[in-house]
Write a structure and sequence with these properties.
Length: 929
């Protein structure tokens, strides 16, 4: 039994009926128990054996269960005359770890005192019952026990009626589905909770242990009875299995068959053969071959071919489907697509309806109105925005044409999309079938701010002592009017408006131009508030502050806002009051686009992707059934996955590979540039990954899991480059003459504090031994904050380090120019000179000395681009030791020892980096983590 301590505690409290106030006792019991049980993390050993090397006695673990009613013997000295008995009643809550012998128990008394006793027996209801302590028939039960431990999650524990276990509403269990264990013949069915076996009343809550439910098995195939505790266990397993809310269940394959059969055979179902079908719900059932063949002959043909059945009677009809291998494969893919749209879908144990009618049928079957309530809530929100204009009843002829359609308007359809959240909430979303409208020649989408620009804005908030807030605009698209002339004929989900012509007036989700219309609406709002879009990134809006000292910014990612201002609360209030936006989560920024935001003890702002990493690890454990192994580096130093010759991945692993690469790429964008080179290298193999490649991705997940503490810290102190002397060279008598940096003429007036840009560049020659290409790596910092990073294979093959390093220097120079102009267009004062550091002396010398001569003409473009930047005076190109060049992190597969000092200062260290010692010590690592 795997799971966290909290998961075990919740389950034990549910099964035992313990009060919520007893959470601490339950946790202590679980911790004690887990020390005696095998742990996967210890290769199947129990923790106590791993600690002591001695086999543990577990006989005392089986005597009682948590919260079990017991009788315990009272001390002789406590007796009185007349005698009140030799026993008292309490609840067994654990073991006397440090009191008495192994058979000493922890008892919770009626007065909520903890005592320890060895003379304890179950308070059973048989002949051994203590009739002096139990209520006689007709007498009222004693009052519930008072509070022992006040839960930190509850304001009060005095009213025990609120916390009677179980915490699950019985009505909520009706309609839940889960997989039953496989039968002996290989079949596995899905069961649905039909109804409780007895009527549950608030007057008899203690029937939890005896409560049973009726199950509908196999969609009406049979009925079974299950206890409450068994049901909770199955539902827990189902939720663990369906962690991915977007999973789509469908017919997968045929894994066996029965036959030939005759009508007298007990397995006969109307066909000479039955096939064992595996469904993506996890079910496996025997179905008649005739039915499966009618629905999916291609899959039947593949199974027949693989099992040499094509010449058998009953299977010969499939020969025509396997005439050519390529056509068969093509048919398989086509059938997979077909079946993915027509089979049942589940989320967290609930069946998801495909349309309104099925939603109402599920409500009827489950005896509730959850889907109806979700639909009504969605339509109410849409009506609140006046999305539709009702023009009356539609007149439809026998051909389905709307005779009184508005002139110039096109009829489209809408449909409902359903989902269930992890907490059981049912959700519905009305979406327009925008594919039925014509393509527009204008832009149809809304842009989003780049993550680099977003980091720059956050850096400026810290630099200029501004406040950083976040906000989400609810139902953003419905804030805008659509320009498309379209209407729908309302369906039954619209209630009294069924059959009416509804003109769509707002930018409903699903329309081609809804994104663009929302962008137009936001444009008008921002302009009205005095903001203007930055010319470098139009999704960053800026305006001078009220005192004119700095600029204020709003970074827009569709409907998510990151606000940097002296008074962001005033901006949010204006959006609410004047423009009637429904803002959600407005306040100091804590989470944005997969990244958490918090502050170190010294007040430094931290951008931390730990929550996203946790989701990655949850996905990994669900897919592979285990946690990734801990690793100190993303890939083996000097690894060359391009020469891997292991077998190609299965189709399932190919899909996993694409998902893993996508997750790693987004993690790089969120700030984990230490895995950039490895992710870039492994992305090459997405079309046809091999088993060795997915093993490398698993290693990368292990490294990410081990280094979850890595985060970007926004340090705004200017770096001290006083010890770096700018060379004084006369470039007038060179081909560059009196060259100057090209300054943008339309940039806003600079305001606020000055920013220094620092960049590090490196190249790794012969990174790819198959193509011979090198890798360019660049790391950019604003003051002391990593702000942008780059790792990519070069487009040409270089035969020497000089050529690859000069090509990398040209790329870095172009990026520095872009970064400086980005800052200028944001109104940031940029220091006159940018600093570029490289570890190749030949390149640095050739780029910075006017008299150097180019020896290889094919390097001419890189050579002159870098030298012109140096001659203009805005770029200082300086040499550093390769061991201190952080661009190495982005250019090669490194060893932990070689890069840890740099990783520590860039991603791990809390506090001033000047306090970092030269050599890593134990205390350094503790502080870094």
């Amino acid at each position: 039994m795997f799971g966290t301590t909290l998961e075990w505690t919740n389950r034990i409290m549910n099964f035992s009926g313990a009060r919520a106030c007893m959470w601490l006792l339950a946790i202590q019991y679980v911790v004690y128990l887990r020390n005696y049980l095998a742990s996967p993390a210890l290769d199947g050993q129990c923790p106590l054996f791993a600690l002591t090397g001695q086999t543990q006695d577990i006989s005392h673990l089986t005597h009682f269960h948590f919260n079990q009613p017991v009788y315990y013997r009272i001390d002789d000295d406590a007796r009185s005359f007349p005698s009140s008995g030799t026993e008292l009643k309490g609840h067994w809550v654990g073991f006397g770890e440090h009191v008495g012998d192994l058979m000493t128990w922890k008892i919770l008394t009626a007065d909520d005192d903890i005592i320890y006793r060895s003379s304890v027996r179950p308070a059973s209801s048989g002949s051994d019952v203590n009739r002096r302590l139990e209520s006689v028939e007709g007498e009222p039960e004693s009052s519930s026990l008072p509070v022992f431990v006040r839960s930190r999650h509850l304001d009060s524990c005095s009213d025990q009626s609120e916390f009677v276990m179980p915490t699950i509403n019985f009505e909520d269990l009706v309609g839940r589905t889960f997989l039953l264990p496989p039968k002996e013949n290989g079949e596995r069915h899905r069961a649905r909770v039909a109804k409780p076996l007895i009527e549950i009343s608030s007057e008899a809550p203690n029937l939890i242990q005896d409560l049973k439910f009726i199950l509908d098995v196999g969609h009406g195939l049979s009925e079974e009875i299950i206890t409450y505790n068994e049901l909770l266990d199955y539902i827990q397993k189902e939720e663990d299995r369906t962690m991915d809310p977007e999973q789509l269940f469908k017919f997968i394959r045929i894994i066996g068959h029965q036959g030939p059969l005759n009508q007298d055979d007990p397995h006969y179902k109307g066909s000479n053969y039955n096939v064992l079908v595996e469904w993506d719900t996890g079910e496996t059932t025997y179905e008649p071959l005739s039915i499966i063949a009618r629905d999916d002959p291609v899959t039947c043909a593949v199974y027949a071919k693989e099992n040499n059945l094509l010449d058998e009677k009953g299977w010969r009809r499939f020969k025509r489907f396997v005439k050519t291998h390529k056509r068969t494969i093509r048919n398989i893919k086509r059938n997979k697509i077909k079946h993915s749209h027509h089979n049942i879908k589940y989320m967290f144990g609930y069946q998801i309806p495909r349309d309104y009618d099925e939603a109402m049928e599920l409500d009827r079957k489950n005896g509730n109105t959850k889907w109806k309530e979700a639909i009504d809530l969605e339509l109410k929100q849409i009506d609140d925005y006046q999305t539709f204009k009702d023009v009356g009843k539609a007149e439809i002829n026998t051909k389905g044409q709307v005779m009184n359609a508005p002139i110039g308007y096109k009829k489209i359809r809408v449909h409902l999309v359903f989902a269930v959240k992890h907490d059981g909430r049912h959700k519905a979303r009305l979406v327009a079938d925008g594919h039925l409208t014509r393509n527009t020649t204008e832009g149809a989408y809304s842009g989003v701010v780049s993550l680099r620009s977003l980091r720059i804005v956050m850096f400026l908030s810290e630099l200029n002592a501004l406040k950083l807030w976040g906000a989400d605009i609810g139902n953003a698209y419905l804030e805008a009017f659509t320009e498309e002339k379209i209407f729908i004929v309302a369906g039954p989900e619209f209630g009294d408006r069924k059959g009416h012509i509804l003109i769509i007036s707002k930018a409903l989700y699903g329309l081609r131009t809804s994104g663009a219309r929302w962008h137009d609406r936001l444009f008008d709002v921002m302009k009205d508030m005095g903001f203007s879009p930055s010319k470098n990134d139009p999704d960053i809006w800026m305006r001078p502050s009220s005192d004119g000292e700095v600029y204020e910014y709003i970074a827009v990612y569709v409907d998510d806002l990151a606000i940097v201002a002296k008074d962001p609360a005033e901006i949010c209030q204006t959006l609410k009051d004047k423009f009637k936006f429904k803002l959600k989560g407005d306040g100091p920024l804590e989470y944005h686009l997969g990244c958490g935001y918090w502050r170190d003890p010294d007040g430094t702002l931290v951008a931390d992707p730990k929550k996203y990493i946790e989701k990655m690890m949850e996905w990994y454990e669900k897919e592979f059934g285990e946690k990734p192994r801990k690793m100190k580096t993303p890939l083996e130093p000097g690894d060359h996955p391009e020469i891997d010759e292991s077998p190609e991945c299965s189709e399932k692993d190919q899909s996993r590979y694409l998902t893993m690469i996508g997750q790693l790429q987004w993690l790089v964008a969120l700030g984990r540039f230490d895995i950039f080179c490895a992710t870039m290298t492994m992305s090459k193999f997405r079309p046809a990954p091999r088993e060795g490649h997915i093993s490398r991705l698993k290693r990368m997940y292990g490294y990410v899991s081990e280094t979850r503490a890595a985060a970007i810290r926004f340090r705004t102190t200017e770096p001290n480059y006083d010890n770096i002397e700018a060379p004084q060279h006369n470039w007038m008598r060179t081909v560059y003459g009196n060259v100057k940096e090209v300054m943008p003429e339309d940039a806003p007036e600079p305001k606020g504090k000055t920013v220094v840009t620092t960049s590090y560049v490196d190249a790794n020659l012969y990174h790819d031994v198959v193509t011979g290409k090198a890798v360019t790596a660049v790391l950019h910092l604003l003051n002391q904050t990593p702000i942008d990073w780059y790792s990519k294979k070069q487009s040409t093959v270089e035969t020497a380090t000089f050529g690859s390093e000069f090509s990398a220097a040209r790329t870095a120079t172009d990026q520095i120019v872009d970064l400086r102009n980005t800052l200028r267009y944001l109104g940031v004062p940029v220091q006159e000179r940018s600093y570029l550091f490289g570890d190749n002396k030949s390149v640095v010398t050739n780029a910075t000395i006017p008299t150097s001569v180019l020896s290889k003409r094919h390097h001419a473009l890189s050579y002159h681009r870098v030298r012109e930047a140096v001659a203009s005076g805005f770029l200082l190109f300086h040499w550093i030791d390769g061991k201190k060049n952080p661009a190495d992190i982005l250019s090669k597969h490194w060893t932990f020892v070689s890069v840890f000092p740099m990783l520590k200062s860039l991603l791990l260290w809390r506090g001033e980096t000047k306090d970092i010692k030269d050599e890593p010590t134990v205390s350094d690592k503790d502080k870094a983590n």
